[in-house]
Batch of 2 targets.
Target 1
Amino acid sequence: MRSDVKVAPAERTLRRRDRAAQRVPGPHAASRRNTRTGLLLVSPALAFVAVFALFPLAFGVYISLTNWPLIGPYHFTGLANYTALVHNPVFLESIGFTLKYTAIVTVPIFVLGYALAVFVRSNRPGSTVFRTMIFLPYIIGLVPLSFMAVVELQPQSGTVNFILAKFGIVKATTAWLVHTGLALTAISFLVIWFAAGFTMMLLMAGMQAIPQDIYESARVDGASWWSAEWHLTVPLLRRSIALSLIVSVVYSFLAFNQFFIMTDGGPGTSTESVVMGIFQTAFADMNVGLASAMSVVLVVVVGLITFVQFRFLQGDAD
Amino acid sequence: MRGSDKKRTLTFCVIVAAALVSAACGGSSSSSTSSKTFGVNATGTVHFWARQATDGPAKALVAGFNATHKNLKVVLHLTPPNDDTSQLATAIRAGSVPDVVGLNDIDVPTFSHEHALMDLTPYINALPYKTALSPGHLKLATLDGKYYGLPYLADLSVLWYNKKLFKEAGLDPNSPPTNYAEIVADSAKISALGHGIYGFSFAGNCQGCLGFTMLPSLWAVGTHLINGPLGTQTANVTSNTPLKTMLAAYHTMWAKHETPVADQTQNGLTWGKDFEAGKVGILPGDYGFAAAFTTPAQKAEFADAPLPGVTGDSYSTFDGGDDFVVPAGAPNASGAWEFIKWALEPQQQVKYPSEGMTPIRTDVLTPSFSTANPYDAVALKALAKGSVEYTLAYDAVFNEPGSPWFKMFEDAVYNGNLPAGISEGQSGIQSTLDSIKG
């Protein structure tokens, strides 16, 4: 049935334009479609993260609210595990020790990694060999390196004492791994040597991505090497620096292998990292509920530190 | 309801009732039959989990069993070090358990206490050689008068000594020390030989090794560090005179440099190598070290003796090693029991020494066994007097790096502060026992 309502010509024109507008997709429709396509494309990755990261995390939080033993029945205990942690001196000491360890190794790893990256970023003859040599400890891995260190740090028979004793720095009988200070020193040196190569690779990749014409312009303007490095390289490398520092701090917070192999947390529990404490609580004391609470606290602490670091290093680059 | 329906309903009820009674009787009958046929002519596959640390006997037993049994096969799965209990616990929680497990005997109470293991009492009581089974291993498998496991293999501690060094130091090479006063005296004479020779050695950064070699000397004189039943256990440190004597002896030898400096960092990985190199006079250690003594010269030089009591006239050993346990709900428990019975037969037991382990049946100690295995004969003789600390908190009290036992040892031996060590040991062990109540 036709409409009897009379419509003014101008209004008809407007209606036609609207209908046309509905037929031809506008920017909003395209945006919606792009969003849908995007979601569809990332959905496998999202599902993967949900199944293998978010669900275990949520389940871990649930376990932390129970008295879950490794075997046997369990029941809901509310925040009892978290309350116990506040009064647990070994856990608090392990957090303090892990913070101290992180503070000790982070800066040297970065400084050494940066210096090495400067050294190998150009494709001079020999650069590739040098890069490989520096990166080799990272390829070998921390577990074999830690076992090697245990052997070389032995009193009387280890190479470290043999060399240092020649210079009068230590005695040949120095037992590195049973004294807290010495053990931490030895492990820190090992980790700096191990991780500097990885930082070097991250920073070198960032440095090589900076266009050379920027440096050429700076040289034309009379900038010195130091000036170019400070005013060009460092600001343009901010994202790589942020990444390397965040990775370094997170790895330090999650340190386990080197302490487990070299000191077993000793003497006493003086070199027990947080993750070692979690491992002991879950698998030696068989208290998975408490260990999960410790893990949740660790996740929160690492998350907060990473967030602060990220915000601090993001700066003007974004 | 019509009459025929009533009749049909009545008939149905009678049939159901008869079926239920029959099922109940059948169950009972089946149960009685099954206890007779349990472990006899079983078929299928038995999944056997053993520790990597004791893989030698496990591999040999599985190979031997499979070669002689057509209808029942054993599949071996080795659990890695530090993961044996967590793997089993995970399997139990997942409801997918193996049929039989060679479990470190000190871990058995933890699992039996949670009712995660099958009650084997009637089958063990029926064994004709039950009284010959290692008492310490069996004690750890006992809860409320029931057996939840039985001995599988023994890993025992003994006192190693170097006859050549004894002779050079003017000591009788056929008279090993029989108490700690003699150990200290002999150690001093041997150390006086100089040239890198030490009187005594110990694994000073291996908490488990120290418990393994020191506790038997306390048990030999009738004292334990942990007393009382599970749930109300108490630490026996402050008033433990033999313990103080032993710690003081260790400190004396350490302070006088009669032990290698590397002992303080010895975490067990190269334990006994200094003795094997002929540099140490006395070493409380593992019988398994014997596997490295292969040459006639070594066999003439090295001898073992039972670990003496602190004050002498007695000896003991740490009943280490594994128990056989059958997890509750094991799919082929009958097959597992058949395998266990076969493994405990003397023909299999006498082969243990070649794998660095000791049999768990004292009746295997015959003259021919002693002639063929002189080192293991010493260990097996001590097995009858072996013991353990029965507690759910063994790992936490003794084996962990920050354990109160080790803190006490460090204070008393390395720092030379016996009163502080004793005080810390008493409070630390007691608080650990209180926190892990059975």
Target 2
Amino acid sequence: MKSSSIVALALFAVLVAALLVLPGSLKQQMQATLFQLVSPVLRTGASVEAQIGGVSGGLKRLDELERENRRLRLENEQLRTTNAMLRGLEQRVNRLTQALGFREQSPFRLIPAHILSRENATWWSSCVIDRGSLDGIAADMAVVTENGLVGKVTSVSRNVAVILLISDESLRVSVAIEGTQEQGIVSGTRSSSNYLPELRIRFLSKTAGINPGMKVLTAGTGGVFPSGVLVGTVKDFSVRELEGVAVVQPSVDLASVRDVFIVSGVK
Amino acid sequence: MIRFFVVLSALIFGAFVFQLYLPPVLPFHGAAILLVPALYFYGAVALPFPLMLALTLYTGLLHDLFLVPQTGANPEFPAGLSAIVYALPGLIMHGFRPLFLRYRWLWHLFLAALSAVLTPVLLALSYAILSFARREFFYSDVIVWRILGPGLMSLVIAPCLFFILTPLALFLRYRPGLKGAS
């Protein structure tokens, strides 16, 4: 082996080791910087994709009408999401009022965002949105639509942010199953993706009376996800040797969702 | 040589961005269409060892920053880990460099096929690391398809890219192993 090759190999090993020991926050920052760098390309790509979709739909619309339509649609979805969340809150308030007494709850502050791209990674499920720190987005904020939970924000740059989707195995959300006392942790599986999502709740009681069609809602523990947000519906419940396992169908179609809302806090 | 390295690095960067818009192949259980491995493996066989290592580090780091969500203080798959994942099949590919230097189209075709065979190795290694980090190993038909599917598609993609990259290298006046190569 040539001496230059040995030096190159040693340098490679040192650089890889240095990269691996970098703090997680710095890696998040590196990822955010990279997406900030390619954000103009992503925005152009998303608009081309939308235009292709428009042409394939056989419709030609004026830019102004399209913008207005988009604004109204966003407004409508925002109102519907707020409404759905308020309903969830109302149920929670009623339950707490009955059990513990009155407790004030506030509706959420939502920031609308558009999905620019979906990472087609084999083992991870994430996407990029067109909002960043300039819009008030921060890491660990929950992402929802009017249909339910989408995921959470991981890396944030000035104009774009990366969202980890609920179909990813590494995103774990504490949930409650409506109509039961059962609580558990829902997560995707390694074979899950945006297009073929598969969520599971493990470590449930074997005797839990869980039936297909029951709603799965966020429990609100952990501080990242607000309580009462719909995650999905139970598709199947099976009993293993030590635990009950529920398969959950996500309420949001992760393959086709385009507009999302980031929960930035309570009003 | 440096010019070719820079152009190949730019192509890999572009391929990562382009891949974001490629939908998964549902008949292959959602397997991804991957362009980057074929480009990388071409670099692994065409470039001298030090530059091949530089390309490995660059590709591995970009892979992790583009595709792996970097969550929390201790991410389960930290950025940079893919450099090691890419290095292992990359070194195998580099071992076949003498065949590449013969400049016979049949050998180039063989190397393109080899790069397609090594593509699932990248995915399998990532999966093994991920399984180790999550302390749970399982496999299913879907997992097998997600690993082998990109390799099958690469059997078509890699020869096309190889036969584009060789004229590109010549255009950039890079002809490795021959006197007078820049």
